[in-house]
Amino acid sequence: MLIRNALHRGDRIDLRIEAGRIAERGHELDPFDGPTYDARGGELLPGLHDHHLHVQSLAASLASVRCGPPTIRDRNALAEALVAAEPIEGWIRGTGYFESVAGDLDRDEIDALRDDVPIRIQHRSGVLWFLNSKAIEALDLGGADRPGLERDARGRITGRLFRADAWLRDHLPPTPPPDLARVGRRLATYGVTSITDCTPSNAAADYERLAKAHSTGALPQRLQVMGTLGLEQTCSRLPVGAHKIMLDESALPVFDALVARIRAAHDEGRPVAFHAATRTELHFALAALESAGPVFGDRMEHASVAPPEAMEALARLRVTVVTQPNFVRERGDDYQRDVDTSDLPHLYRVKSWLDRGVPVRFGTDAPFGDPDPWAALEAAVERRTPDGQVLGEGEKVSPEEALLCFLEHDRSPTIGGLREGDPADLCLLDRPWERARTRFSQVRVVQTWVGGAPLQADDAPSDV
Length: 464
Description:
The chain is of the alpha/beta class. It folds into 3 domains: 1-46 and 418-464, Urease, subunit C, domain 1 (Roll); 49-55 and 179-417, TIM Barrel (Alpha-Beta Barrel), CATH 3.20.20; 64-171, Diaminopimelate Epimerase, Chain A, domain 1. The chain contains 16 helices and 22 strands.
């Protein structure tokens, strides 16, 4: 394939693609007997890499009822959404709930909104499910005493279920697996050509499901899969990544056991990736990692609250930070209201990490965050909350610095580093970089390629 008339860092270039790689880059390359794509002056970039999302959860969320901001902002809107929802296999599944909508949900609150079918609603943090009375009855929870099942002072089940995703999957009625092709198509529209699935519970069955979707083209992006200890790579094109370790401040593991777990992962030739969303979780993870001994590729997911002493430890250990600036854009007003004022300057840092030489990657945490990386890029540059306030002025970065955090690790350290021999994983914008960098949220990706194969087709950009 030949891509003509693309802009690349201010230069109008052609690219010849052969065997899935960039074979030649130049000006007015000779035509050949193959397809030609006219980029018509759009900026051609390497494809984006979302370094932290959850593929199967994202697929499920696309078939679920949105129950939180920005779509749902108050109790009336939530009630309307639930009443209008069509049950799937007899159930309604909601996602993205936050207390700003209707306070602390429980079975009685959901019953008041809709009580004729079982309903389960996931909190936007991903750690909590809310069940109505029909759901509690359907799951036969009346006499259950499982970890994470909350009861009130009288012993009545409240409908709040903590850290129970695996248990729910085992006890819900069989449903068709989520449509991973919807995820592949959605990500292609954003120019995403590779992803890291950071789901900690990924085991052999999950790996095989993702591998099948990849091999059939339903999920065409290049994919790395995190998961449990002992997870084996059985597909040559689907590498197994870090061992994901969830930390919960309210129930931290025994320290020595955590150190042993880190060493077990390293013995498998795998780095570890810590979920560390609070100050305490971050310090605990760093102490355990220092005791076990870090290896190349160890990661800190989120690092949501990073005080200076934790930053120095991360820099010393050379741990990669994978963070989500999109949460400033999506949740910043809630943070300003609910987070301790002493922690506000430490939220979702970017510039401070880069200044200390810490490797930084961006992920959207979809479906718990918006999967659109361009909105996340704008958040990293502007640091604006939904109400337009600036949160973390000193953590702003340039558009070019932000873009690098959404690229592959081994790409050239310049924006759009397209080199001969690189995989032809590309995205074409509808405008030159000089215009794109001023307002990322308005950028439209008109074509995406993985290994030279087009993932989506759209109208080519206008001449600019």
